[in-house]
Amino acid sequence: MSKLKNEWFDWVKALLIAFALAFIVRMFFFAPIVVDGPSMQPTLHNHDQMIVNKFIYNVSEPERFDIIVFHATPEQDFIKRVIGLPGEHVAVKDDVLYIDGKPVKEPFLQEIKDQKKPNQTLTGDFKLEEIPGGYETIPEGYVLVLGDNRNNSADSRVLGLIPEDTIVGKTSFIYWPLDRFHMLDF
């Protein structure tokens, strides 16, 4: 009877340790997220399931073109692409992204640009000064984000700049559906 009791105790202890480790990993390192809506198409599709690296920005800063998850409201997280970094001026004119007045290629948009009709714009022209907040450069502690589906995205053009302390993490791995299973290139 004592041997059976010890075996049960070992199993309970192992399960408690496993749950504790899973909780720690989920809370502080990685978490699943489901893409909700078309704002990141064609890169991400509605209902893609991804893993968010919640730890990475504890050891590094967001970089241009990172795909991040952030708290848009207390109840809702958004997923968008980092376009502008602290100290930069951002503008889009005639579907060309300008950072500090220099054109920057956005290779993840090339497929969409190739398919658009003449006189159709992907991204309406805007300057940093025109988005909520009216900044001339992005202040420290903030980033400017845009969805890849520029004509159907609630991003910094609507929300304003995103405080870095609202960023949950970076995502670059789609694990479901299986036919979309892959790491993103940028």
UniProtKB/TrEMBL annotation:
Topology with respect to the bilayer: Single-pass type II membrane protein
A single GO cellular-component term on record: plasma membrane
Enzyme Commission numbers on file: 3.4.21.89
Pfam families assigned to the protein according to its UniProt record, in alphabetical order: Peptidase_S26
Catalytic reactions on record: Cleavage of hydrophobic, N-terminal signal or leader sequences from secreted and periplasmic proteins
InterPro entries: LexA/Signal_pep-like_sf, Pept_S26A_signal_pept_1, Pept_S26A_signal_pept_1_CS, Pept_S26A_signal_pept_1_Lys-AS, Peptidase_S26
Active site: residue positions: 39, 80
This protein's UniProt keywords: Hydrolase, Membrane, Protease, Transmembrane, Transmembrane helix
Gene3D superfamilies noted in UniProt: Umud Fragment, subunit A
Compartments where located: Cell membrane; Membrane
Gene Ontology terms: biological process: signal peptide processing
Highest taxon of source: Bacteria
Record family assignment: Belongs to the peptidase S26 family.
Protein name according to UniProt: Signal peptidase I
Organism for this UniProt entry: Virgibacillus phasianinus
Annotated gene: lepB
